[in-house]
Specification:
single chain, alpha+beta, 6-stranded mixed beta sheet, 5-stranded antiparallel beta sheet, 23 strands, globular
């Protein structure tokens, strides 16, 4: 995937500073600057004076561990639930280590040593579960060791801003002012491939509302089935109303739905929060797990509009998706994993030819924030899921065609629009150690269309018609 570029100028930095000033001016809502405090404890050298200019630079640091879930290649059916529980345990261990790392009572060496021991035991259980079920785990033991990663995007801030309070928050965790950019300064993105003679140019749109039912939870039934709070952040749902950590295919198939055409598919993504320091516990468990107990604070912003559109291939017709196909797009751990699987993009209405992956947009007056998820559009023709939830689907190549061994399916594009209050800072929910970076945005989809509806989607897309 091509990473979208952007230009930073003096004007951009002034705009970002203006947003931060507005946030700081809100009494207890000094979120952006407050988050920038995340960094080194006493004696760790994290507070560096910048060339005698009287500015302090606080560099946030976080825990960087190999992603065991991404490395899995074979998980037999009978091992999926125990492996899901243990992967969730690894995430909890990292979250706790991140808290200790940013406490003055702990040194990095002791934090990492304890984490390596915990991870070693849990990874051993994963290996045993897979092999006992007849699968092959591979060399997972080498993935127990973690390191410390610094967020070097943060620029010097004044002592006043650095120490600004953030109401209700004991430990900071991102984002920082440099995670925002004025959309007007961003270079337009490259255009998509031009459709060829054999392209499927139709679209099928399904209307599923904006989650007026307030269906929230901090589960992820794809990545961590059977694990409450497996995501450590709250998800926003449309479509299937039964979706949580414990839903199986049969339950999904008979559930109610918010979609007007009876589509029972499940669509979910991390909530977007206004960073006002409030505890919005909707969708949390155990008194705030997934929310403030996992570092996700602020009022949940309900989407103003959600567009769910299936579109075709620029080089061929598409074939139907199998029922219960599961797809994750984007990477919730992209800040530490790297951007290979980052895929969500950010923009503003009126500026959607300019897309960002690694910055939140600052939209001008009258423009709204837009999140877009363009899902993988190629399927291996056999599997509805894979051990790492990635390898059974693929993105189209630069020419629009599918890689060898894959076939084109209707591409789901989710476009989610928000009315963010002017001057307000905002961020997606994230795992605590991912510092609420925009690059960690992601979305999930489970296809629960019946065969008749999927046939209509395919006929519409291949026939060049706009339906829905």
């Amino acid at each position: 995937m091509r990473k979208q570029g952007h230009q930073r100028s003096r004007r951009t930095l002034r705009t970002v500073a203006g947003v931060c000033a507005l946030v700081l001016g809100g009494g207890g809502t000094a979120v952006v600057a407050g988050h920038a405090v995340a960094g080194f404890g006493p004696g760790d050298g994290g507070d560096r004076r910048d060339g005698g200019r009287g500015e302090a630079r606080q560099v946030a640091r976080t825990i960087d561990c190999p992603d065991v879930g991404m490395a899995l290649r074979e998980v037999p059916e009978s091992a999926k639930r125990p492996v899901g529980r243990e992967l969730a345990a690894l995430d909890a261990q990292i979250a706790h280590a991140y808290e200790r790392l940013n406490s003055s009572r702990w040194r990095a060496g002791s934090v990492l040593a304890g984490l390596e021991r915990e991870r070693g035991r849990t990874i051993g259980l994963i290996t045993s579960d897979i092999e006992r079920a007849g699968g092959r785990a591979g060399d997972l033991e080498r993935m127990s060791r973690c390191g410390v990663q610094r967020d070097d995007t943060a620029e010097p801030v004044s002592d006043g801003a650095r120490m600004a309070p953030w109401k209700g928050v004991e430990k900071p965790g991102g984002p920082v002012p440099e995670d925002f950019v004025d959309i007007r300064t961003v270079r337009p993105s490259d255009p998509p491939p031009r459709p060829g003679d054999d392209a499927s140019t139709g679209t099928f749109t399904t209307e599923c509302g904006t989650n007026g039912e307030e269906h929230f939870n901090s589960d992820n039934v794809i990545a961590n089935p059977g694990v409450a709070n497996g995501a450590h952040h709250v998800h926003d749902y449309v479509g299937n109303l039964a979706t949580d950590a414990f839903s199986d295919d049969e339950e999904l198939a008979r559930a109610d739905t918010t979609c007007e055409n009876g589509d029972r598919s499940s669509h979910y993504w991390p909530v977007l929060r206004q960073l006002d320091g409030r505890r919005d516990d909707r969708g949390t468990r155990d008194g705030g797990a997934g929310g403030h107990l996992d570092g996700n604070l602020g009022s949940i912003l309900r989407p103003a509009d959600v567009d769910l559109t299936f579109r075709g291939s620029p080089v061929s017709e598409v074939t139907g998706m199998p029922r219960f196909l599961r797809v994750i797009t984007g990477d919730a751990k992209a800040f530490t994993n790297g951007t290979d699987n980052a895929n969500a993009s950010w923009s503003c209405t009126g500026f959607e030819d300019r897309q960002l992956t690694d910055r939140y947009p600052i939209c001008p007056d009258g423009s709204r924030v837009v999140r877009t998820f363009a899902f993988q559009s190629c399927w291996d023709g056999e599997n509805t899921d894979s051990a790492n939830h990635r390898t059974h689907v693929a993105f189209a190549e630069d020419d629009g065609g599918c890689p060898d061994g894959f076939r084109a399916i209707p591409q789901l594009v989710q476009r989610i629009v928000y009315d963010v209050p002017p001057g307000a800072a905002f961020a997606v929910d994230s795992f605590p150690e991912q510092l609420h970076k925009p690059v960690t945005d992601h979305s999930d989809f489970i296809n629960v269309m019946d065969e008749d509806l999927m046939r209509k989607v395919v006929a519409c897309v291949n026939g060049g018609r706009d339906c829905g």
